[in-house]
Design a protein that fits this description.
The chain is built from 14 helices and 15 strands. It is of the alpha/beta class. The strands form three sheets. The protein has an eight-stranded mixed sheet, with helices on both faces. Strands 12-11-13-14-15 form a five-stranded mixed sheet, sandwiched between helices. A two-stranded antiparallel sheet has the order 2-3. A hairpin with a 5-residue loop joins β13 and β14. The longest helix is centred in the N-terminal third of the chain and has 24 residues. 43% of the residues are buried.
């Protein structure tokens, strides 16, 4: 099963603040080791994108703070200071090995639009073809809670889908996913070696991180692994402080915890993955039980007759959630009508669209090609 990592030709490596810094101070050896391993992977014919945390931690340290900022403006200021320091570390390190780097700062709202999403894909793909190492980070200088990915674990899973990567490696400060939480003074519990599917038992084993400068814990890493699996990529969670961790994973050795990709028949195509996990919903369509069953079980389109209510303001082509009578999200998709128009035609048959609106954008409120069912 570990051969799935050995076969990977396009790899996303996410490295956290807890690996790169200690209380905000840079760990020079860790940077050097990471750069060496990435360079060796590229020399061996792999393509590698690095998703790097550390800007806020490094900026806070340079500002003389012992905290990552106590308000959003302070965090944004620390990110602005630290991003320069972070990129300079990567630039100098890779330059010593004859490689160029590129800074790619992303926000979730920047990838909301499908055209911008595809433009980002083309940029990253071109950089990889040129042999340049893309260093990706969330643009914390402008991000707020409403528009951010939330953590670089989930950002890295978005990048996996964006570029069609085969493997996601999440480098952290633990050896992988333990079967139970480690307890001080007791032997370390065993690790999960290979995880075919993330079950409630696996989710229960995940524990959050107490690292002051980090956002993600093991739970966000499981979320990233789930998203990567749905796009057809494997994920490995491993200790980034161990020597040659990346090289051993890429060689197919038993390092860390490996999460297998989903079987081909259960994966999401790139566009539907974007709909499910990247594009932000602009509102909700309340649907009846019959419509929910048609979407969930029979893969149908959403018709006006199945809509019982509308929440939010949105226009044609915006992403909305489809919510069943119990308040559960059944699906999300791109609407063919605005919120105001759907309010007028909700509950009606398709033949009544033209008499009510005076025109038709089609029989479906959301066509099945523009809809993805959200499976928990």
């Amino acid at each position: 099963m570990r051969s799935v990592a050995k076969r990977a030709s396009r790899i996303v490596v996410k490295v956290g603040s807890s690996i790169l810094t200690a209380a905000g101070a840079v760990r020079p050896r860790v940077f050097s080791e990471l750069i060496r391993q990435v360079s060796e992977l590229i020399d061996a014919g792999r393509q590698v994108v690095v998703v790097s945390s550390g800007a806020i931690a490094m900026g806070s340290h340079r500002l003389g703070w012992s905290h990552p900022g106590r308000s959003i403006p302070e965090k944004q200021a620390a990110a602005a200071v630290g991003q320069i320091a972070l990129m300079e570390r990567y630039r100098l390190g890779f330059a010593r090995r004859g490689r160029q780097v590129a800074q790619v700062l992303l926000t979730r709202i920047g990838l909301d639009d499908r055209e911008r999403y595809l433009n980002t894909d083309r940029t990253l793909t071109t950089l990889l073809k040129l042999g340049v190492v893309p260093i990706v980070n969330e643009n914390d200088t402008v991000s707020t809670e409403e528009i951010r990915f939330g953590d670089n674990d989930n950002l890295s899973a978005t990048v996996v889908n964006l570029i069609g990567a085969d493997l996601l490696i999440l480098l952290t400060d633990v050896d992988g996913l333990f079967r139970e939480a480690p307890t001080a003074g007791r032997p370390m519990p065993p690790l999960y070696g290979v995880v075919p599917q993330i079950t409630p038992e696996i989710q229960h084993a995940a524990q959050g991180s107490a690292h002051a400068f980090g956002r993600g814990g093991m739970i966000t890493k499981l979320e990233a692994a789930q998203k990567a699996a749905l796009s057809g990529a494997a994920t490995v969670i491993a200790n980034g402080r161990r020597r040659d961790t990346l090289l051993r994973i890429a060689a197919g050795e038993a390092e860390g915890t490996l999460f297998l990709p989903r079987p081909p028949e259960t994966r999401l195509g790139s566009r539907k993955h974007w709909l499910a996990f990247t594009a932000r919903p602009h509102g909700d369509l309340l649907i009846d039980a019959g419509a929910a069953a048609a979407l969930r079980e029979r893969g149908r389109s959403l018709l006006p007759a199945g809509v019982s209510g509308v929440r939010g303001e949105f226009g044609i082509g915006d992403v909305v959630r489809c919510v069943d009578p119990a308040g559960r999200e059944v699906a999300r998709g791109l609407v063919a009508y605005s919120a105001a128009e759907i309010t007028r035609i909700r509950g009606l048959s398709t033949r009544q669209i033209v008499p009510v609106l005076g025109y038709s954008n089609g029989s479906e409120v959301i066509h099945r090609d523009d809809l993805v069912v959200m499976r928990n």
